[in-house]
Amino acid sequence: GWIALRFLDDPGSAQRHFVTMYEAVTYPISLARGAYWSARAAEALGDWAAAARWYHLAKRHPMTFYGQLAAAKLRSTPDIAATQAAITGHNAVDIRFSGPLAQATELMEEAKEDATVRQYFAALVRELTTAEDYLAATRFATRIGRPDLSLWAAKRAGRDGIFLLAQSYPVISLPEEIGQLSEIEPALIFAVTRQESAFDSGAISSAGARGLMQLMPGTARQVARKLDISYKPQWLIQDPAYNALLGSSLLSEHVAQFDGSYILALAAYNAGRHRVAEWRTRYGDPLAADTDIIDWLELIPFGETRNYVQRVLESLPFYRLQLGSSDKYFRLEEDLARGKQAKAYAPVPLPRPNKDS
């Protein structure tokens, strides 16, 4: 659908593809994506009423990248308060998390049997339906030292239309030295950490990336050298503050290198600076005034990196809220435009039909 719309000049076919997608999916991320691009196709067809309807459908999912883009297009701000779950009690299913399966889960965690812990915890969460249920699940995961499973449960709640703000967007203490990194805001550090490790300080990826901000040992050594601090690879998982300092410094370096661009910095953090350089050569410079940022992002050939950038950016407003930012929380259009030359990206108001149409 996107190819038909943006490259084949066939909005009719594009809209059919997007509507089919929208009707076939259930997760908020996919619903918002399908609705947003259906709106874009309707605009291209000159059907402004249909475009507005589709944008409003996408806007119903403010926790998602395309839901926030739709809200910006409509010049409206998502109502965070309206999305938060009302907690009416705290003991509704706590008993579920003190029974035999919960006890077995805790024992497996003590034995470092990660795969079994995940399997058992998934079984505990499988039948949950209410905000109280999911809150109990996040408390249990936190109690056994698994912040990643707490976040997993909160995300699963979000798929069921239950929004637990604090549990979905956790914050931790950061080293004081990070305050000297003027290139990045703390909300960005937390959003990256959420996507990288789900706040599991002991996480080690299949590629060997380690700790909170998933640093490769070689890269971490280079960053430590630039900061003139000692380095030991085991510190990456043994010392969360150390990992956060190195990861934040690397992220700040990327943001500075790319003239403040969050899109390019995040793509580089995920896929490497050399690949970002290749993509700028192949697909054009997203910081140029005449380049459509959304198209450039969709052109990234690595699905993991496309998803990564979108998931981090959509988390930013909720971390700004958590951290008490005095600025407006939802400013995705501004975050997309960071570093862009001359003419910044901005949402285009819906065209209005003239009196003769």
Short description:
60% of the residues lie in helices and 0% in strands.
Descriptive notes:
- This protein has about 350 residues and is an all-alpha fold.
- It is built from 20 helices and no strands.
- α13 packs across α15 (about 240-255).
- The two termini are about 25 Å apart.
What are the key terms here?
357 residues, mainly alpha, 60% helix, disordered C terminus, 0% strand, 3 domains, single chain, Lysozyme
Q: What is the correct CATH architecture of the largest domain?
A: Orthogonal Bundle
Which band does the percent of strand residues land in? under 5%
Shape: globular
The number of domains is: 3
Q: What letter string, H or E per element, gives the SSE order?
A: HHHHHHHHHHHHHHHHHHHH
From the N-terminal CA to the C-terminal CA, the straight-line distance is: 27 Å
Specify the structural class.
mainly alpha
CATH third-level topology of the largest domain: Lysozyme
How many strands in all?
0
* Count of runs of 4 or more consecutive helical residues: 20
Question: What's the average pLDDT?
Answer: 88
Contiguous runs where pLDDT drops below 50 for at least 5 residues: 342-357
CATH class of the largest domain: Mainly Alpha
Main sheet summary: none
